[in-house]
Design brief:
It is a single chain. Helix content is 6%, strand content 40%. With 155 residues, it is mainly beta. A seven-stranded antiparallel β-sheet has the order 3-4-12-8-7-6-10, with no helix packed on it. Strands 5-11-9 form a three-stranded antiparallel β-sheet. Strand 1 and strand 2 form a beta hairpin. The longest helix is centred in the last third of the chain and has 6 residues. The chain is globular.
Amino acid sequence: MFGLFKSKINEIMTPVNGMVVDLKEVNDPVFSGKMMGEGFAVKPSDGKICAPVKGRIKSIFPTLHALTMETEDGLDVLIHIGLDTVELNGGGFSSIIQEGQKVKAGDPLVQVDLAFLAKNDKDDIVIVVLPEMKDKKLAINLGTRQVGEIAATLE
């Protein structure tokens, strides 16, 4: 996982290895229309979902398909794993974290079985959005979309 967003206060890492995708390309109007906020997505090459920031686990959906984190300076970060994966009722997901737990960027959060998602016809895209960035600009450079060659800044 590599740094994707940088500001004076925050650096947000990609939560999973894979190919970075512009949020507009996500096959869900809520995310592609940025109704949940600005962000990015990653088409994962493995199922190890890690903390993109240092902070605290704010909430974990019972189905483990989504969670929110809060950075040390109060920025909320939503991680949503797959599309329509809530319908799996937690199948294919395992977690080792708890609400309120403090984590560092790169700490494992959730393990997802990508083959299980494929078998159940679920898109495995991992979406990261910043709800507070809904009305603010976020500069993202997706020149080379392979994780590790990307930089962006919060404005």
